[in-house]
Amino acid sequence: MDDQTTIFIDNDHVTASAAERISVINPATEAVIGSVPDCGPADIDRAVASSVAAFNGEWRRWTPDERVEALSRFSQAIQGRMQEFADVITAEVGTPTTQSMMMQVFASTMVLDQYVNAAKNYSWQEQRQGSLGQKVLINRQPVGVCAGIVPWNVPLFIAAMKLGPVIATGSTMILKTAPETPLHGRLIGECAKEAGLPAGVVNVVSADRVGSEYLVRHNDIDKVSFTGSALTGGIVGGICGEQIKRCTLELGGKSAAIVLDDVDLDAVMGDLVMSGMLNTGQACGAQTRILVPGSRYDEITEALGAAVAAIPYGDPTDPEMVLGPLVAKRQHDKVGGYLQAGKDAGAIAVTGGNLADMGKGFYVEPTVFRDVTNEMTIAREEIFGPVLSCIQYDSVDEAIAIANDSDYGLSGSVWTQDFDQAAEIAGQIRTGVVAVNSAAILDMASPFGGFKKSGIGRELGPEGFGPFTEIQSVLLPA
């Protein structure tokens, strides 16, 4: 049992003031495996004050090169504790151990390393010729004190997406872990300290809704970086709008995989399946709407159903498992409701279609629905579970229209042997990332973010630094 009484502030584990606790439940066993403080105003104030002091202190005097070196050391510190991170995250999230090391931990260090590479070539200052003949310096200054709010599905990975640009730009951050997955937060803080970052540059707190909203509303927070649901993102964005506070929002998705009639199923089936099933479907960019040509609809839906039916799922500590449980009973019940809604609307389960009774744990049968129309609830709303919906189309133009007929626009994919046609189709899809014959929902060296209700702003790549900087023009004499 990991009952934590501290939070990470000023490069130290300090006793939290909050008396309330957040219990952490292993989704595979339903056992309580630990608890953390449910931080309220006193703890949040302390963390914010620490980050303000750090921003105004020696950290402001660090050069870009010094910050980049520290960011590299931060990545190395996480790499040195990869197994520890992976074990904790498997227990918290339910990600199978075969994936936790690579997808949850090593991928996070890849993100940090990509930010290191991008920062080395980033133009922190440039000189221009002014309109009246004078010289103008364009400075990219740090945005200030940031709140980073991460979700539970890939918590360390998303923390890395936020902490990378914070460290590189010279900002500071209070990182707020998700209530379902807070136990690994102390390890993040320890790695920041090991990297030699000044006290207060990275503070880590745990809080549920009340403390989280208090952090977002705090007058000394200059910017909020939020990843989570569109519903909560709208609340966060509204608060930031009221306060004229900078924010970036990486929200949900209902991504479409457009399968063209020339697809080589044998060549792509494994990737096509995992594009929607990765992390047991608990991924914002999951390709959960599979758009299938009418000429091959029966063939492809049957093959997809057979492939999904063959996926091993169960105890995430079993190295044979590919899918694990959903993160919480709340999510388990929600997905069960979507399964019933799909069947009630006339969708037919090619495989799965039910909650899985495995004695304990929040398991769902990996599911493929056919005879789905884009008007059904299961095709409109983000399920966040191992559920794929096969939608028939009769022309490429219709497929593009169906893909774009969504409130979301985060990821997408095209599956074909004609890459020129795939590129042409991708340019017509209103979504932030489009992959061709790949399960990838992002590229770590390229900008990631959404159109429409999938969010505001971009993370990753050199573009990821922009939201964490303020642009200043210095007008010099002619």
Structure, explained:
- The strands form six sheets. This protein has a seven-stranded mixed beta sheet, sandwiched between helices. Strands 10-9-8-11-12-22 form a six-stranded mixed beta sheet, sandwiched between helices.
- Helix 2 runs antiparallel to helix 5, helix 3 packs across helix 4 and helix 4 packs parallel to helix 5.
- The protein has two domains: 272 residues, Aldehyde Dehydrogenase, Chain A, domain 1 (3-Layer(aba) Sandwich), CATH 3.40.605.10; 190 residues, Aldehyde Dehydrogenase, Chain A, domain 2.
- It is 37% helix and 23% strand.
- The protein is α/β, with parallel strands linked by helices and 478 residues long.
Classify the helix fraction into a percent range. Answer: 25-40%
What's the gyration radius in Å? 23 Å
Structural class: alpha/beta
Summed up, the helix count is 14
CATH architectural type of the largest domain: 3-Layer(aba) Sandwich
- Largest sheet geometry: 7 strands, mixed
Low-confidence stretches: none
What is the overall silhouette? globular
User: Would you report the number of β strands?
Assistant: 23
C-alpha end-to-end distance: 67 Å
Q: Could you say how many structural domains there are in total?
A: 2
Please indicate the percent range of residues in DSSP E strands (runs of 2 or more). Answer: 15-25%
**Which CATH C-level class of the largest domain is it?**
Alpha Beta
Mean pLDDT: 97
